[in-house]
Amino acid sequence: MIKIDPLDFDSALFGYPVGKADIEFSSSEKEILEASKSFQLVYLFSGAPLDFQSKQIIPTGETVQFSKSLEGSSEEQKEVSVLAQSPTKDHLSLAFQSGKFSRFKTDQRLTNGEFEKLYSIWLHKEYQEGKVFLINENQGLISVSGSGNNAQIGLFAVDKKFRGQGLGRKLLEHLEFQLSQKGIKKLTVKTQRANSVAVNFYVKNGFREVGSRFVCHFWDRE
């Protein structure tokens, strides 16, 4: 039996019922559609790619998780500073650029500004917690969340006009330095398999892949 968990935050933000579910390979399409009928949008997570006939369910990609030990050396970067003012349009632009491959961006059925709402809230929340770092004011940003010995990269982007200058590496190195100073031992990050630039960047900078999940979206057009 498939259980759809309601997502109160997403539902309030998007303005319609949203849920999520973990789907087993043995789950039938009929069961999924029946369980999802009370929702307009459902995130369906699985450990392997699933094939559906219904046009209401479409694959939105594979999310990959990477992990890195912070026991190695890192350096503070003088060009990097904490975002100390309410995010501007330039900062929002960076947040949106970080989500270029997000399933909320690539699912063309989401036409009510879901992607922009979600990433704007995300940026403002981490700014309020003092967890957004900028390089050269607005050329790139990286944010972080988590507690205890673990931290997770959230938003991470270098403006398209300034790429290829090593700014992403400097942002990452500065973040690793700050976390190490606080005694945090591990840094994780999630990205999309389709984002080959990000995948290669993390591997090049010492991260190792530790898991992945395939995601589909159920969408009720009515």
Provide a quick synopsis of the model:
It contains seven helices and ten strands. The protein is of the alpha+beta class.
Structure description:
Helix content is 31%, strand content 30%. The chain has 222 residues and is an alpha+beta fold. It has 2 domains: 5-63, no CATH class; 66-211, Aminopeptidase, CATH 3.40.630. It has a 10-stranded mixed sheet. Helix 2 (29-36) links the parallel strand 2 (18-22) and strand 3. Helix 3 (89-98) packs across helix 5. The longest helix is centred in the middle third of the chain and has 15 residues, at 114-128. Residues 90-222 form the N-acetyltransferase domain.
> Architecture of the largest domain in CATH?
3-Layer(aba) Sandwich
Q: Name the poorly predicted regions.
A: none
The rounded Rg comes to 19 Å
- Measure the end-to-end span: 25 Å
Secondary-structure-derived class: alpha+beta
- CATH topology of the largest domain, by name, is Aminopeptidase
Task: Estimate what percentage of residues fall within beta strands.
Answer: 25-35%
Question: Tell me about the biggest sheet?
Answer: 10 strands, mixed
CATH domain class name of the largest domain: Alpha Beta
Give me the side-by-side strand order of the main sheet.
1-2-3-10-4-9-8-7-6-5
* Sequence of secondary-structure elements: EHEHEEEHHHEEEHEHE
Tell me the domain tally.
2
Number of helices: 7
Question: What is the fourth-level CATH superfamily of the largest domain?
Answer: Gcn5-related N-acetyltransferase (GNAT)
Number of strands: 10
Share in helix: 25-40%
Mean pLDDT: 94
